[in-house]
Amino acid sequence: MLLLESAWSLPVAGLVIGSIIGFAARRYHFCTMSALERHWYAGDSSGVRAWVLAAAVALALTQSMIALGWIDVSSSFYLTEPLPVAGTILGGVMFGIGMALVGTCGFGAIIRLGGGNMRALVVLTGIALAALAAQRGLTGHARLALIDPLSIDFGGLGGQSAGAILSSLTSFDLSFPLAIVTATGLFFWVFRDAAFRRNRERMISGAIIGAGIAAGWFVTSQLSQHLFEPVQLEAGSFVMPLGDAMLQIITVTGVLPDYGVGLVGGVLLGATLSAWRSNDMRWEACDDARELSRHLLGAFLMGTGGVFALGCTIGQGVSAVSVMALSAPIAMISIAFGARLGLGYLVEGSAFGFMRRQGHGNMPAE
Q1: 3 contacts: CB under 8 Å, gap ≥ 6
Q2: Is residue 139 a contact partner of residue 250, using CB atoms and an 8 Å limit?
Q3: What is the pLDDT of residues 307-348, one digit of tens each?
Q4: What count of other Cβ atoms lies within 10 Å of the Cβ of residue 12?
Q5: Which of 38, 137, 232, 252 is the most exposed place for a label (fewest CB within 10 A)?
Q6: Does pTM surpass 0.70?
Q7: Per-residue DSSP letters for 163-190?
């Protein structure tokens, strides 16, 4: 009970859950960017299916806890009005391009840093600074002036949750039935592939990460009822929490670390333990100035785009999916499109090269 009443319970919980997620992601090679690249260029969908499995597990567990009355995530920032449609699309494309330039997302960069990759440290620092600027600094002013006014208010339809909108339109509470149908469809698509069903590592990584996201909702929702301080309901995102973690490291903010900061630290700890246990730790750095500049640009695009889009591949792709936020499919389609543009530029020499070769088969992976 004393732990529940302590503000330190938030970062400690994040540290524990993040350690489990980070260990599994490093151990079983969970990476959204790698999954997309292999799907497009090698015809291997196992990584994409692992990511969809994580989203499906998080959706099923989160909506079950909501139906049982264990948690209330209605005040999550994924569901607060209005929905920044323009920001979600623009930010998603920016994030996807940045992800392609770097070769991974913020979550993946933490996993790589756990194994001694110094390029990942550069990327994480860049994402953190860009996220702070987009939230509170110069690019934040541009966001407020140019992008936020293009938001859409769904308050009259019950909010940004697909379940709430469907319930409002039909006058019946269909949130949980919709969640069941959606999760069932996702599970069916994931496991219809025989090769994936034989891939034990992919299944484990997806299940653990999905369960970890659901656990985040449970922890922050429960602690919000026991702590006197306001608690931000969150499950897992790796853009703005990187900026918050940087502030906690370099200055005395007067505010204790929150769940997101603890989660970032936990993922790094878990990835480091996994790399050490597998004897997979080695120092890596940028080969030249060109590679460094590409990583810096990618980090800026991910940090800025992640704030505009209200999340990353984990934030929108798993956490927002678990609460059936309308922003999730918009953001993920935009991120995938941006990643396709970035890979087209890097691999084919043209951002729109993949459009010109439609119908001519896939290129071999490089």
Answers
A1: 9, 12
A2: no
A3: 999 999 999 999 999 999 999 999 999 999 999 999 988 887
A4: 17
A5: 252
A6: yes
A7: HHHHHHHHTS--HHHHHHHHHHHHHHHH
